[in-house]
Amino acid sequence: MSQTERLYQIVRMLENARQPVPLARFLDTLEISRASFKRDLDYLRDRLGAPIVWRRGSVGEAAGYVLEGDRPGAGKRYGIHGMWFNPSEIHALLMMQQLATAMEPGLLAGQVDGLMTRIGLMLGSANDDPAEIARRVRILHSANRRATPAIFDTVAQATMKRRRLALRYYARSRNAESDRVVSPQQLLHYRENWYLLAFCHQAGELRLFALDAIRTATVKRDKAREVGPRSLQKAVGAAFGIFSGAPREHAELHFSADVAPWVASEIWHPAQTSTPQPDGSLRLCVPYADSRELTMEILRYGADVEVVGPPALRTAVAEKLSQAAARYRPT
User: Fold this and answer.
1) What residue spans define the domains of the chain?
2) Which of 22, 33, 56, 328 is spaced 20 to 30 Å from 313 by Cα?
3) What fold does the segment set 249-326 form as a domain?
4) Domain range 3-81, its CATH number among 3.10.20.30, 1.10.10.10, 3.10.450.350, 1.20.1250.20
């Protein structure tokens, strides 16, 4: 019997017992030495937070081990199949559930609802209502594109089980659908939308697929091709935006004093540098590989930002602003 099996058996014996469980019963049932039981007991107490205590014998009750939810100084604790939580940890779990649900409503409902119901029952008479947490924590969405729950589940299953996926994918840039076989590497949640980073066997390289543009997805029996962590990091995360790759340029942006206090708190990229100016304005330098998303982000600030360089990015932003201004000129 492995240690994991022993730990589970110890907890089950304590949960099912109406009387304290004597040491001899553990040793006989688990067929282990006193020293091994002591190590398992220490692990349950110290690593998993199990409230296991020794109770002295009394009239009509033998001495032995019990699970107690109210140990002196420990406060109330709640157990879920061998895990124990204090009230603040329960609050954190409930808030995480609300965040996950709000991040993409419907995608994780079936997987999360049952767990949250059990947590709610586990709280019992405590003054912690999951519904109250849901009312107090809200996430407001902006321009998110909904992925189909069935597609999300299939893609997530293939990603975790390391299996290839057969996709029918709609490319918006070409307004066309195509069939692909991919080896999923990572699921990415970026700016309220889900993406699959996968090795495309047709293209022979890593590609990024928006989940909301996947029309059909089927898990194949073939094992997924593994891509090293360095290659994954180069593909996504090295430069600004979801269209990442290795940085090829650095954008130098000058923000007016009116918006500088807000921009100073924004993280456009982990490797960015920002320099406050004497007049209250701000210089921001951001590495990028693809200018498409960066251009859209710059345009968000309108007249309060100037692209100092490089020239190609400055020209691209200027052309977009000119085209926008032309739409408002009297005809």
Assistant:
1) 3-81, 87-136, 149-235, 249-326
2) 328
3) Alpha-Beta Plaits (3.30.70)
4) 1.10.10.10
Distance of CA 131 to the CA centre of its chain: 22
Q: Tell me the CA distances in angstroms from 96 to 86, 107, 122, 160, one per residue in order.
A: 15, 15, 17, 21
Residue 56 in tokens: 């002295």
pTM (predicted TM-score) = 0.61
Answer yes or no: are the C-beta atoms of 101 and 141 closer than 8 Å: no
Strand (E) or helix (H) holding 267: none
Task: Report the pLDDT value the prediction gives residue 127, as an integer from 0 to 100.
Answer: 52
Q: Do the Cβ atoms of 45 and 82 come closer than 8 Å?
A: no
Residues 6+ apart with CB under 8 A from 272: 284, 285, 286, 287
Residue 122, number of CB atoms within 10 A of its CB: 13
pLDDT of residue 132: 67
What distance in Å separates the CA atoms of residue 133 and residue 100, rounded to the nearest whole number?
A: 13
Could you give the percent of the chain with pLDDT greater than 90?
Answer: 45
Question: pLDDT at residue 277 above 90?
Answer: yes
Question: Which among 254, 268, 249 has a CA at the least distance from the CA of 311?
Answer: 249
Query: How far apart, in Å, are the Cα atoms of 49 and each of 54, 156, 320?
Result: 15, 31, 58
3-state per-residue secondary structure call for 294-306: HHHHHHCCHHHEE
Cα separations (Å) of 109 from 115, 152, 166, 273, 288?
A: 10, 12, 25, 40, 36
